[in-house]
């Protein structure tokens, strides 16, 4: 299945941060899934700006969800049950 969510809701649109109340341009994808209800190939996506990327990822990790942060244009096909980080990114 992989990730299928379209961050660009309208042609030519810029993705906006998923943090409530934020309207900043998103530079990151917070890829995650809830292992209690989603198969390993199911990936949900939150868009994140620089200011909220760590907050959103940490929120999901605190619930023991597998999370991988990638650049806004980097697709993730699946997540395993370990918390993954992009090498060299430090997130």
Mean pLDDT: 81
Count the strands?
A: 3
User: What fraction of the residues are assigned to beta strands by DSSP?
Assistant: 15-25%
* Number of distinct helices: 1
Element-by-element helix/strand order: EEHE
Explained architecture:
With 91 residues, this protein is mainly β. 10% of the residues lie in helices and 16% in strands. The chain contains 1 helix and 3 strands; from the N terminus they run ββαβ. The protein has a 3-stranded antiparallel sheet, with helices on one face. The protein is globular, with a radius of gyration of 12 Å. The C terminus is likely disordered. This is Acetone carboxylase.
Q: What descriptors fit this protein?
A:
mainly beta; globular; 10% helix
Short synopsis of the structure:
This protein has 91 residues and is mainly beta.
What's the helix and strand layout?
Blueprint: E1 28-32, E2 44-48, H1 53-61, E3 67-71
Antiparallel strand pairs: 1-2, 1-3
């Amino acid at each position: 299945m992989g990730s299928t969510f379209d961050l660009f809701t309208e042609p030519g649109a810029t993705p906006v941060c998923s943090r409530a109340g934020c309207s900043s341009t998103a530079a990151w994808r917070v890829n995650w899934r809830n292992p209690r209800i989603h198969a390993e190939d199911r990936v949900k996506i939150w868009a994140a700006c620089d200011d909220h990327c760590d907050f959103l990822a940490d929120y999901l990790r605190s619930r023991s969800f597998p999370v991988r942060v990638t650049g806004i244009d980097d697709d993730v096909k699946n997540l395993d049950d370990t918390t993954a980080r992009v090498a060299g990114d430090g997130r």
